[in-house]
Amino acid sequence: MCGRHINTRSAQDLNALYSIVLELWATHEATVPVAMGHLVHALFLDLVRRFDAALSKRLHDEPGYRPYTVSPLLGVARQGEEIALRPGQRCYLRVTLLDGGNLWQSLNSYVLGRWTITVHLGSSDLQLVRLFSASNVDPSGWASTTDWQSLAAIRAARSITCLFLSPTAYHLGDREFLLFPEALPLWESLLRVWNRYAPTNYQMEKQAVRECVAKSTAVADCNVSTETLHYPKYTQKGFVGTCTYSIEAKGKDAQSLAVLAAFAPYSGVGYKTTMAMGQIRTRLSETQVGHT
Known about the structure:
Layout: E1 4-6, E2 16-26, E3 30-33, H1 37-51, H2 53-61, E4 68-70, E5 78-79, E6 82-85, E7 90-97, H3 102-112, E8 117-121, E9 124-132, E10 144-147, H4 148-152, E11 159-168, E12 170-173, E13 176-178, H5 183-197, H6 206-216, E14 217-230, E15 235-247, H7 251-267, E16 280-285
Parallel strand pairs: 1-9
Antiparallel strand pairs: 2-7, 2-9, 2-10, 3-6, 4-7, 5-6, 8-9, 11-15, 11-16, 12-13, 14-15
Helix pairs in contact: 1-2, 1-3, 5-6, 5-7, 6-7
């Protein structure tokens, strides 16, 4: 039943960051391309348009204002370059919201106020039946909520493992991309998004973070491979897999790197995070890799 949702925090917390999960049911047999970034992006903006057309336009048009990420469909199996959906099949779409709770409040109110919501993924119709924001009731395991203060209090880590779950790439300009999880572009990407949306008192000095990464991080273990997304008019490569970074820094510098790593699941990493790329999970450890 659409509108049924469980939330463990107040939507009035204007410092909140949300990772929400939309449960969708296929209404008919359909085929969806694996390279669906443009489709999930359009689905989300259309959903926002239904309750705030001006905001949807701003999210689409305003340069640099992208306080959200959208995942590919979760809980579905791919068959080559396509995903086959059958009537009644459940799947999930994860959306993160970084705008301090405003998007969340409007979206939550819209979903709660309707029994049936149909969304469109390209030519496929899906019914939005539930919205999850709490991990203990989310079958996909992606729903969570935090705030800037909690993130800023994260303790320093001696090693940080990143799981790149959808194709990730760092844009170098024109059509050039870095397709390896080097430390500096990773933390630069996180820092740009952090400083764009975090309250002023939590923002970080760019040069200090860059110097810390350059001097104090190293790839300790890495297992990644390259995937190619075949869009209708172009292809886009990205890497997926796992990379662990050892952190030699101490004190405030080391804490800054850990804070940004903890932020990564909400911000995404690298290129086109609003179009299903750069989905990431992180693990922070106080023990150095290779040591006990």
